[in-house]
Amino acid sequence: MRKQSENGYSLLIVLMVLLVLSVLTLSILGLTIKHHTFSKQEVNDRSAFYIAEAGLNYTIKDIERISKIELLNYAPSDKISIENQKEKYLEAVKKAISNVPAYPFRFEKHGNSTPTVDIQTNKNEFPDKIKVTSVGKIGTKERTLTQYVTIKYAYLNEGGESVGEGETHPPVKPPIFNYPEKTAVFVNGNIDLSGGAEISGNVGTNKAASHTITLSGGINIRGTIYVPVGYENKAIDKPSSMNIDKPLGLADNVKFDLPDFPVYPVLPLMNNKVIYKDGNQKEVIKGGSLYIDNYISDGFRLELDKDYQFNEIRVEQNNNLEINVGNQDKTLVVNHLNVLNGNIKILGTGNLTIMVMSKISMGSGSVVNTSKDTKRLKIFLDNKSSIPNELSLSGAQKIYGSLYAKNTNVLITGGGGFQGNILTGGKKVEISGGGSALYTMINSPNADVVLTGGGSVKGTILGKSLTMSGGAKVEYGEFDIDPGEFYPPVDPQFPVYKPVVSDVIKVDKIIEK
């Protein structure tokens, strides 16, 4: 009996152990199944987010593509047309987006579920924005993501680099220069040196012909002469007694193109202003013109809080005009810059750009930019006519800055001087009678450059042809060519450049609903 009782207890213990193990096994199995289900849901939740994000990215890329295409069709012709063209452009982009077929998302089946994405674009909430909503679904999980895309009406400069709305200093493409080092003179045509003319630096021509360089009358060249390959023995016409080294041949033409001339902005006129001195009054600003022409206006300070336009700026009777640009670069558009007798001084730490629409007149010993810091002043001179106009510095007048004259003949005589770079599309550049251009690049591919009667240049001359006589001198000298010198700052509200091909949209952060 005792043995049977012990066997019964053993059986009971075994059964209890089996029961406990069964419960534990079922519990573990339940936890495993639950964890698997939870993990699957978590994976599906993440997958739904990524699906929605993929929909956003694809849609935004398509908006960018459409914007690039449409922007090329809606370039502003001038400042006045910008807002009108911008409105048309935004409408065109939104219409093009509406006409795009359903986005071709096809996802593979995942388990028992096939992922889907639903994309909606709201084009009416803001005039320049598109709201993109993407809903990613897989199984029972759904994620909704939203992004706002701003359509930018942007521009680029003549060099092809993008300039977004609001930028004030676009990157620019400098002219192409590939002349040899230490070049004092390089032309596309003939060179004629006589009467004691001197050149210190290298000299060259692109013209492939015989007798393109004529030398006579005690001239002096201290440098290498360059001619096209094959004309090393034909290019120079000189007396047999003159000792000149044989030219070197260049296989490729030297390039010195002018950059495209900038479009002038249309700027506001400054309000009329009356000043008082010794009980007398003077209207210094009247009808859009600035008059610095008597003792009351002498030393008048023009405060530029922004860019302005003037019909005329007149300085005479040995008056001084101070232009305070503050700590930012400023632009003045002027129909006639008329400095008959006086000086213009630039104050502040910024730089000044003067864009002249018709002509520059200078008389007596007038000076523009008395600080003599050439980097602080850029002058542009337009000419709508096919006939070149003329800029003359003939009576000890001085300009310290860089000049880009669209179609202007430049004459510097009688002690007149220019210090800075001169770019001109005119037909003639003449420096004579003690006139000088110092530390300068004269880039005038269409001009016959003439130096006579003691005229001198220190820097580099690039032109159509060169004639020197009467003790004229050209000396190669280092100068600082800054690409930004050839373009004015851009009014951030009214860019004046061509349509951009990149940087046309701005994308906000992702918002999850």
Notes on the protein architecture:
The protein is an alpha/beta fold. The longest helix has 70 residues. It contains two helices and 38 strands. The protein starts with a helix and ends with a strand. It is 17% helix and 39% strand.
Q: What fraction, in percent, of the residue positions are helical?
A: 10-25%
Strand content: 35-45%
Low-pLDDT stretches are 156-173, 488-501
Number of helices: 2
Structural key phrases:
513 residues; alpha/beta; 30-stranded mixed β-sheet; five-stranded antiparallel β-sheet; 2 helices; elongated
What's a concise summary of this model?
By secondary structure, the protein is α/β, with parallel strands linked by helices.
Strand-helix topology:
Elements: H1 2-71, H2 82-98, E1 116-126, E2 129-138, E3 141-151, E4 155-156, E5 162-163, E6 183-187, E7 191-193, E8 198-200, E9 202-205, E10 213-215, E11 220-222, E12 225-228, E13 236-237, E14 248-250, E15 273-277, E16 280-286, E17 289-292, E18 300-303, E19 308-315, E20 319-324, E21 330-339, E22 342-347, E23 352-362, E24 367-368, E25 377-381, E26 389-393, E27 398-400, E28 402-405, E29 408-412, E30 417-419, E31 422-424, E32 428-431, E33 436-451, E34 456-468, E35 473-475, E36 498-499, E37 505-507, E38 511-512
Parallel strand pairs: 6-9, 6-34, 7-10, 7-34, 8-11, 8-35, 9-12, 10-13, 12-14, 17-19, 18-20, 19-21, 20-22, 21-23, 22-24, 23-25, 24-27, 25-28, 26-29, 27-30, 28-31, 29-32, 30-33, 31-33, 32-33, 33-34, 34-35
Antiparallel strand pairs: 1-2, 2-3, 3-37, 3-38, 4-5, 4-36, 15-16, 16-17
Helix pairs in contact: 1-2
